[in-house]
# Entry
Amino acid sequence: MLSHIARRLLASLPVMTFVGLFVFGLLYLAPGDPAAIMAGDQATAADIARIRVALKLDAPFPIRFGSWVWSLLHGDLGLSIFTNQPVAAMIVQRLEPTYLLMLMTLVISVILALPIGVVAAWKHNTASDRMVMVFAVLSFSVPSFVVGYLLAFVFGLQLRWLPVQGYVPLANGVWPAICSLILPAVALGSVYIGLLARITRATMLEVLAQDYVRTARAKGAEERKILFKHALKNCSVPIITTIGSGVALLIGGAIVTETVFAIPGLGRLTVDAILRRDYPVIQGVILLFSFMYVLVNLLVDMLYTVFDPRIRY
Amino acid sequence: MRRRDVLRLAAQSAVFAQLAPFFTAPAHAADKRELRYIPEADLNILDPVWSTSTIVQVYGHLVFDTLYGFDKDYNVHPQMAEGHVVSDDKLQWTIKLRDGLQFHDGQPVLAKDCVASITRWGKRDFMGSALLAVIDTLTAVDDRTLLFKLKKPFPLLPMTLATSGSNMPAIMPERLANTSPNEQIRESIGSGPYRFVKAEWISGSKAVFEKFAGYKPRSDSFPPSYTAGPKIGHFDRITWQIIVDASTAAAALQAGEVDIIEMVGADFLPVLKTDPNIQLLPRTTPNFAIMRFNHLQPPFNNLAIRQALLKAFDQRAIMAGTFGEENKEFWQFGVGYFSPDSPMATNAGLEAFTSPRDLKKAAEEIKAAGYKGEPVVVLDPVDYPWTHPCTLLAADTLKKVGLNVDIQAMDWGTLMQRRLSQEPPGKGGWNVFLTALSGMSNFNPVGHIGLRGNGKDAWVGWPTAPRLEELRQQWLDAPDVATQKKICEDIQRQALVDVPYIPLGAFATVSGYRSNLTGIQLQRPLFTTMQAKA
# Structure
């Protein structure tokens, strides 16, 4: 198992290298000039040219790429063009809110989606099933930022139960941190809940029609046990796969959700960096996201072996 | 209860006692006077000499101080300076610093710091470079005395050292001021009323300022006014929360999670107007929307075509279409080349915009001027909430007078790069873009970038207008304000001849604040006048 993990991690190196080259090349070709943005609306061409030289943005592609890779090999992601802060430090500042938001979103989504998916399959073709499906389609179809605005209006502005924006760091208390992320997590999870509920329902329907379930029922097993022990466990592989691939969905969704709820996470950092053409920050964040994705896929593969003993690496 | 139960309860209590702090928020903020503010943009540059952006200037006036300041009527007063003495031949200015000034690192403010700061600033700012051009020598006579020896009289010297709106003549320690003017300073150490808490800074999210106990306010009798007078901090801590989404910002203000929004989105003004806990404040010296031409490429290298367009643009329609009739108290039309509330604003020649519009005549004149139907590339920044609709409205007018308009959508970052191109539009160049000139940054002809006529050295668009340049120099040499105003009338009339750009109206930045605050400055958020109502 350990050698498998090591092999997978080693195999991620060429992937990361390709991602790095691709992102760097894309940014190099993309229109926009950090020097022009930095100099401001009222700068003259001469001002901008001076800044470009000072930031070494006038250097050719191979030199810039080589210098970035060299720094990267020394564990240095470089400095933000705008703030002069180390990119690594800026990323570390933003990890906690994003990770916590993604974790809460996953927890809320799984807690809500699995039972309703199971119930929909169990009560197949009844009013409950249809209600669940309507909910799933709605939650899958309405963009998360619309859900976010609605939640903030109802629970933040009208009922005043939760804050409408902002993030309270864990250092200021676990409960305040959780409170600050409930609305964003529900908004971000809305799409995910619909997707996961539908997958659970479809897989459960398939499993519930199998002989061993009929046998368990014939033997007088409790319905709860049949659903959650015998059937759901056998649905776990497609569900885990959906959860794993949903992490990519969460990364994209976090960018919008963090903007709507003013959460200082990696998503906001990415958007700000793109709008400003802060190349070192964009490159650093994209590398991190791609590494996260590799890790999540590895974790998903490991989880298969937990839920399905037939799978071995 | 059994012994075992008692022991279990005791153990659980101990665990919960350890965990309790994690489940409750520390009460550190509640016992401090804190102001929570949403600025108009993110603070990502910490050098007010280097950057002209409004947000950096607002930051600059919190953390740094200037030798002179403006009151709300733009009269100049000594600020860090105690006062000055001018020689009879007007060629020597001796400025003495106030006693007891110190930087945030505890070091005293010395004349040599001022010399280095002014020298660096002068290389970045229009007014500053005009000053440097007439300085023969600038020296620190002693720790508190600066001596300017000039090549020719420069009556605007105190006003220049009070410059506000463009690059700030911020005084900083000599070691920082020795940084190249093309690079940003690496530390945030000023001598202003608040110090920047860099450890809490999260670019794109939060900036924190704490009251500087070592700040020595002026002891003048007049109350603080704009950048002049005693700057007394009434809050221990000022937290800037960067919220880019206008809807979220408005909701945060309504929910009482923040105290001020610097720039309320136009769509949310009607909602906030009806909230009894919120006041709206249009800032004075409004910004003006402009349509800038590329003077190097056809068809707008043709003066007659630019002049013909003056008859076509309806400022009222464009402002109403962009900001809404329901917000009409916040925008103006019939606006010339100087911001309406600024001291240099004039009505000279304004009938060019206030007379009835005549699209038909404009179309005829454009045709007669030799327009051959070449495409007019209009750059449209779709990510800017007001610029995008304004661009579409302006483009519509261009179409109505028979121009072959090609609207090209892009984000602001791309536009900023594209507009630097002097190539023909077909090769990556452009013909027209819209932007806003800050009223505060462009209220005199020296700092007014849109009125420069020095060809390829001018701001993007590169107009050549020698008469405008001549008048600018005359303004710099003018002995008094009355003469300056007269010259500005001539500048406006000349701008209507050269048409470096077309003004499309003015609009105020509207701030929203909780009703329990008082003392909000009209020009800009200078936090030393604000306080909570008792």
